[in-house]
Amino acid sequence: MNQLHEFTSEPMIAYFSMEIGIKTDIPTYSGGLGVLAGDTIKSAADLKLPMVGVTLLSRKGYFNQEIDANGWQLEKPVAWDPARYMTLLPEKVKVPIEGRHVYIQAWVYPVISPTGGKVPILFLDTDLPENAPADRGITDYLYGGDLNYRIKQEVVLGMGGVRMLHALEFHIKKYHMNEGHAAFLALELLLRFKRDIESVWDERSVWDVARVRDLCVFTTHTPVEAGHDKFPYPLVKQVLGELIPIEVLRDIAGKDHLNMTLLALNLSKYINGVAKKHGEVSQHMFPGYHIHAITNGVHTFTWTCEDMAKLFDKYIPGWANEPELFVRSGNIPELELWEAHREAKRKLFDYVHQTTGIAMDLNVLTFGFARRATAYKRPHLLFSDIERLLKINEKGRLQIIYAGKAHPHDDPGKKLIQGIYRYREQLRGKVEIAFLPGYNMDIALKLVSGVDVWLNTPLRPLEASGTSGMKAAHNGVPNFSVLDGWWIEGHIEGFTGWSIGALSSETGNLAASDAEDAADLYNKLENLVIPKYYDPNKAGWSRMMRNAISKNAYYFNSHRMMRRYVTEAYIR
Ligand SMILES: *Cc1c(COP(=O)(O)O)cnc(C)c1O
Predict the structure, then answer these.
(1) Looking at ligand 1, which residue's alpha carbon is closest to its atom 5?
(2) Which of 11, 76, 290, 524 lies most in the core, judged by the most C-beta atoms within 10 Å?
(3) Euclidean distance between CA atoms 271 and 51, whole angstroms
(4) Does 32 contact ligand 1 (Cβ within 6 A)?
């Protein structure tokens, strides 16, 4: 019997993710995917679902972001001590990598809900004395290194994860792959269920694909090509040897490369995208597979700031574990809602002042924009026409707070951040702009609750879901966003927020879509958003805040999402 025996008596759902973000102090996440994974597990704990999480320890995290005097991102190593938060389990398993055994141990972190529900997360670690020095570093850097490093990480996550669950005597009824990174888990299952047949006329019949498919659920998270890991077969052969014959892999994971998405698609019975539109886009990308859609949600308690939580406790008791109760947000008096928001705004501005020295004005309409700094998110759309922006600013003043990291290899993404710093200089004294370095979950909560409007301007249809806007809605902050991802479902014009641009321009040319979207952004900013915000009677604005809660937070939470996963993916 091992330390986790309380979890091994009933069949569990194993949730595999390359990154899981539980809180800022445990830096094992980079962005949306990891935070969603953390929210998933927190809701599973609240709802007492039988789940176990599996991820990598990422001993050196993703990176700490600093910005130099030129606005250029510098990546600093992260130091953290797993022993402060987690318990190292004694069990060891091994996986074959480049003909060596790589040993793996797991740290366990239990996510414990006030409801009494509990979900353990296993953080896999290869930093063991048994391992060769290079292998000890496999679980160091989240999304670090080259393809060779990445494939080893994914072998540890997928194959190592299944072996660890087995060693710990878990009974797994479903394996959920959160993105293709985890798809080697399905290869491990193929090996495990290999039929023992002496002489077969078709060698492939030893692989029980149907049995593996019955056990697997796959969630795809992005239509962006670079988000789908592909490994050349010579590399696969170098790392995995002939564990599974390359011809078999070519059948199930792609002819030219081992494509982790294809591997997951072929070995999962249930496949989904993360918003209705993303389901359709994925269906287009992968014809021949049936792609469902379960729209993302965020963990209500985690993403509600203190001041709003107090208000909800007063008027909507029970909201945290039953976000459906937000349907009753009409009971919150407008003035109190506005006051709670002002308090969150004051706290954010204090933080901005402390960290950047920039003093923002509490009475000025403030936009927030924070997400991974990468080209398709178009953080510069607001600055496409500076003249126009300055004219609008005379009608009603604006401030903007930015945050976000660029991947260390994404120089165009780093240039976007540098661009924000340039605009900051150029517009100083007119449109105040702040950039908060080191975007993390703490900063995210401060931002989504403290700004007045949450802005999102992705290039359609590349924002699969987006979740920061859902966090904003939980704090009564309306969204002003391009109709993509979740906002297609959450947007009611002038009621929960505002749209930017047309519903769909998948086929249109991209430059034209920039210009059209910018024009619509400016028009609505000038004629709708500013007049409503600066209306001396704040009741109209407060009602909109209330609608964001009753119509958006009510639905776009991870409790609803998990109930959908249970009924549509897990119990089938
Ligand atoms: C929520 C969150 C994200 C994801 O934001 P998107 O709008 O989905 O891009 C990224 N990073 C952090 C720290 C977050 O909290």
Answers:
(1) 468
(2) 524
(3) 19
(4) yes
* Integer CA distances (angstroms), 357 to 64, 360, 361, 424, 495, in order: 20, 10, 13, 13, 35
Which atom of ligand 1 is found nearest the CA of 469? 7
Decide: pTM greater than 0.90: yes
| Residues 320-352 as b or e (16 or more Cβ within 10 Å = b) | bbebebbeebeebebeebbebbbbbbebbbebb
Contact 440, 21 (CB under 8 A): no
Average pLDDT across the chain, whole number = 96
Residue 62 scores a pLDDT above 90:
yes
pLDDT band at 458 (very low <50, low <70, confident <90, very high): very high
* Cα distances (Å, whole numbers) of residue 448 to 42, 114, 119, 129: 20, 24, 27, 44
Residues in the chain: 572
The string of pLDDT tens digits covering residues 96-154 is 999 999 999 999 999 999 999 999 999 999 999 999 999 999 999 999 999 999 999 99
| Contact (Cβ atoms closer than 8 angstroms) between residue 44 and residue 51 | yes
DSSP 8-state secondary structure symbol assigned to residue 557: B
Cis bond leading into 77, ω under 30°? no
Q: Among 278, 449, 456, 468, which residue has the most ligand 1 atoms within 8 Å of its CB, making it the best to mutate?
A: 468
388-406 pLDDT, tens digit each: 999 999 999 999 999 999 9
Q: Is the pLDDT confidence value at 226 over 90?
A: no
Asked if residues 183 and 177 have their Cβ atoms less than 8 Å apart, the reply is yes
468 lines ligand 1 (CB under 6 A): yes
Ligand 1 centroid, distance to 404 Cα (angstroms): 9
186-205: pLDDT as tens digits? 999 999 999 887 666 777 78
Question: Which sign, positive or negative, has the C-alpha torsion 54, 55, 59, 63?
Answer: negative
